[in-house]
Specification:
Chain lengths: 339, 339
DNA sequence: TTGTAAGCGTTATCAA
DNA sequence: TTGATAACGCTTACAA
């Protein structure tokens, strides 16, 4: 495409190594030649070949991000946060979406074993059961950072929100609003976030002396319509809950759609609180939705900063086995408040 | 990280070139050695170095996607569609988000001049005024595909929806519902989609004999709160519209928020139709929003297919200067229907 | 301060 | 059918 180092050097009647050093601002090169080199490079619009450089230096200046869903403000926001930091440092982002499919996730991770990226940031698929592929990656010394949906057994850095506490508080809020039969909606029992959020829910019920009814703990699929129907079935059953804690945003939307298919009304017959990323949408729903929102952009930024630190400074230690907790915020809206 | 070709060859007591050919299934290699090579490669988990290969072959197996916003179902869906196709062919996606900032867009495009990606798929920033950077790229023979927000002057392949017709029909729908003062909301006058959608709007008014009031044609910024306030000002002014055609989804949400700050009600005092990607959200808004939705995933798939064709088949011609139109669908909901 | 040469891991040409 | 060698474009010892 453009001009390369050799041609640039020929034009300048200098050796490629001198030109390389000049462009990399080496102290061995005189100011005069540096200027000459830089000005011609600019004039000819010289762009170093990234692959030659990567091959030579054994690093790609690229970070891979693996998320379960793209049409999801939560993940989209985190990626925005990561890019905000990494772009400023000249890093590129390979973004992969698994569509919640473990096989796809494994394939992607395997493809990344070859050094195409210098690090991976991942929030795992809801269908994940074993973490062999990620373990292997980590054991080989590959920089790996988790956020949100983590693998707790893998000793590396993780960014999560205070799932337990948020869920505990959210459940408590429902209890305070008079709910006696509180359902818990989740995507998969295996997810780290599910476990933590479930614990918070359970402990809040315990503390209030409410018996946990396992028939009110529902696991959902990737099929939207099917989810809506399941919820509707629950809502018209004898065992109808009067409160719902949804651990995933889209299950709250599914609930709203299910309610529309019944004679019930929120918050009169049913109160609902949900982990939810998009507060504009939450506030415009009818009724507006009480949410638990995580500072996702911040999480992305933190991931980005950590990785830039690790990848750009020489002789960095392994990423610490540490879990950073960035607290969520509960915003009470009409879906849990009796009018 | 893992083993490389030379080591694999040494282990097999073969030359690197033989091993390379065996792995690439060359017809010159005997079945016997092919099997030996492949089995050891699998056993040692050999992964070819992508940079060595890219350097040698002068292609990256990577496609760059540039979008204005990540937290936007429209763009997220298109990227999903692209990935659906390209991933199956072993291509990787570098995804860049400009946050509607032209300078950022230019920087990104310039970074991609060096061959890091084999092609670019882009929907331009709303603030774009000159397309020098994209023109340069195209003139250098770099494969470039536009979708949605295109640069019509650059002779390459574009994927859009039937903006004019959708907008015309949408406006007509408002007129049929009795609207006499119809506003048009946009992000920037420069965008291709704005121009086309505006034309459709204008012609529909003309046809109905309604005078276009330019005070009802509003351009908005990136500042959410400011947008809401502008809309509110309009709504409480003497020149209040009774219908709105919003050319951008988030301006419809801003309108809903603005309405909440007034005594007005949709659809009684104000009817609204909007280009909008997320039909779940549209149906759950209060009142549910009449939308014009584009098959975005399909657009992504088409982009992907075209590029795979171009990049994987030998001796492909330049991408044709052709605009593919994938029609949108109007879904009438409560925001435009008097109860 | 600058130049020479080797090497990163592949693949392709030519020779055996 | 296989092997030796050069080349892709860059950086970095080592020499000058």
């Amino acid at each position: 495409m453009g001009v390369n180092l050799k041609e640039l050097a020929a034009e300048l009647k200098l050796s490629p190594s001198t030109v390389s050093r000049a462009l990399n601002d080496s102290f061995e090169i005189s100011e005069a030649t540096k200027q000459k080199v830089i000005s011609l490079a600019k004039k000819l619009d010289y762009q170093p070949n990234p692959f030659a450089r990567s091959l030579r230096e054994n690093k790609s200046k690229t970070i891979a991000v693996i998320i379960p869903e793209r049409i999801n403000s939560y993940f989209a926001n985190v990626v925005d946060g990561i890019e905000e930091i990494t772009q400023a440092h000249g890093y590129h982002l390979l973004v992969y979406c698994t569509q919640e499919d473990v096989e796809r996730e494994k394939k992607i991770v395997n493809l990344l074993m070859n050094g195409r990226a210098d690090a991976i940031v991942i929030s795992v698929s809801s269908q994940l059961t074993d973490n062999f592929h990620l373990n292997l990656l980590h054991e080989r010394g590959f920089p790996l950072v988790f956020f949100d949906r983590i693998c707790s057994e893998i000793p590396t850095t993780k960014y999560i929100t205070n799932n337990y506490e948020s869920s505990f508080e959210g459940t408590n809020h429902l209890i305070q609003q008079g709910c006696k039969k509180i359902a818990f909606f989740m995507l998969s029992k295996e997810l780290s976030i599910t476990k933590e959020r479930y614990s918070g829910y359970k402990d809040a019920l315990d503390q209030a002396g409410i018996n946990l009814d396992s028939k009110l703990n529902l696991t959902f699929s990737q099929n939207e319509e099917q989810n809506i129907e399941s919820i509707k079935e629950l809502l018209i059953s004898d065992n109808r809950p009067d409160g719902i804690l949804s651990s995933i945003g889209k299950l709250a939307l599914a609930t709203y759609q299910a309610v529309k298919r019944t004679n019930l009304s929120i918050p009169r017959d049913l109160k609902i609180i949900s982990f939810f990323a998009d507060s504009t949408v939450a506030s415009l729903l009818n009724p507006s939705l009480t949410t638990i929102t995580t500072p996702t952009f911040k999480i992305g930024e933190e991931c980005g900063k950590l990785l830039i630190q690790k990848l750009t400074k020489p002789k960095q230690p392994d990423l610490p086995n540490q879990t950073f907790v960035i607290p969520s915020k509960i915003t009470i809206r009409s879906s849990t408040i009796e009018i």
